[in-house]
């Protein structure tokens, strides 16, 4: 769902201030009205410093989305201390993750103002955060295979199928809900997602 990271390093002390600055600017005015000059000024760095690392705003926003989406997905996972079987851990992570993504201020801003940024990662290719999520899911699926809570199968294929399902709920749920009808509310669809995931994974 996000672009591949470009010339960025998690250990770079400049990275977070710049990403924080672009996040603040995008939340205020959207991607199309954000410039590298705006970001440089807000981050307290020179414009040429940014140009050496990011050729344009969209590439910089790609790194921002990767950081934000991975953080949101990780925060949605049950605590490691929770004594949950593999299937329950996967279901809780994905159901919570859909809610976290849909409530995320940056995600909402992009969907409302600059949705074209997401299209390549829905229609054409995977991005960095999708690959990171697939790694997490495949590991969790294998753990479910090991404890018997997830039906046997090709772990990577199962992980990709799960991501396809939750992407559709994340991106398209609001086109299907009707909050005036309790049976078509967001909460009702969340319950349906939980049931779907449970039945997909059950042995």
TrEMBL record:
Key words, A-Z: DNA-binding
UniProt cross-references to InterPro entries, sorted A to Z: Homeodomain-like_sf, HTH-type_TetR-like_transc_reg, HTH_TetR
Gene3D superfamilies associated with the record: Homeodomain-like, Tetracycline Repressor, domain 2
One function term, GO molecular function aspect: transcription cis-regulatory region binding
Residue ranges for the DNA-binding region feature of this UniProt entry: 35-54
Domain HTH tetR-type: 12-72
Stored PROSITE patterns: HTH_TETR_2
UniProt protein name: TetR/AcrR family transcriptional regulator
Species this chain originates from: Streptomyces griseoaurantiacus
Lineage, highest ranks first: Bacteria, Bacillati, Actinomycetota, Actinomycetes, Kitasatosporales
């Amino acid at each position: 769902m996000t672009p591949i990271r470009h010339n960025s390093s998690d250990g770079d002390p400049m990275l977070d201030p710049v990403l924080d600055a672009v996040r603040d600017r995008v939340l205020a005015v959207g991607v199309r009205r954000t410039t590298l000059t705006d970001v440089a000024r807000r981050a307290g760095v020179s414009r040429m410093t940014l140009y050496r690392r990011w050729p344009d705003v969209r590439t910089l926003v790609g790194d921002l989305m990767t950081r934000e989406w991975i953080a949101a997905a990780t925060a949605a996972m049950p605590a490691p201390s929770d004594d949950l079987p593999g299937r329950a851990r996967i279901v809780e992570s994905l159901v919570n993750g859909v809610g976290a993504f849909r409530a995320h201020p940056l995600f909402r801003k992009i969907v409302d103002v600059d949705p074209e940024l997401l299209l390549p990662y829905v229609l054409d290719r995977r991005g960095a955060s999708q690959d990171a999520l697939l790694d997490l899911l495949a590991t969790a699926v294998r753990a479910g295979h090991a404890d018997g809570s997830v039906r046997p199968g090709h772990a990577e294929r199962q992980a990709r199928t799960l991501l396809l399902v939750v992407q559709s709920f994340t991106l398209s749920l609001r086109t299907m809900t009707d909050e005036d009808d309790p049976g078509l509310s967001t909460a009702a669809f969340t319950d349906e997602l939980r049931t779907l995931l449970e039945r997909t994974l059950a042995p």
